[in-house]
Amino acid sequence: MIAAGQRVRVRDDWPETRGPCHIRTPHYLRGATGTVQRHLGDFPNPEDLAFGRKARRLSLYHVVFDASSLWGDGKPKAEILVELYEPWLEPV
């Protein structure tokens, strides 16, 4: 499990280039670094459920990103909060 306050990077992976898939991780976050705010619980993997496959349970987290690091708009203290599953997160 990833701890609250831990810095993480969203995997820079593009499974949609390898065939049909259902991805809940936004494109603009792939490769970005953020901070885990909290663990939300463990839930069936929606990427499996979308295809009617048996889904393993995955940890889901709130991760906070600095908006200016994503879009370079320079707005002070603007943040974005996103729900991401653990397999998409790598410790920094």
TrEMBL record:
Residues 3-91 form the Nitrile hydratase beta subunit domain. Gene3D superfamilies: 2.30.30.50. It comes from the Bacteria. InterPro entries: CN_hydtase_beta_dom_C (IPR024690), Elect_transpt_acc-like_dom_sf (IPR008990). This is Nitrile hydratase subunit beta.
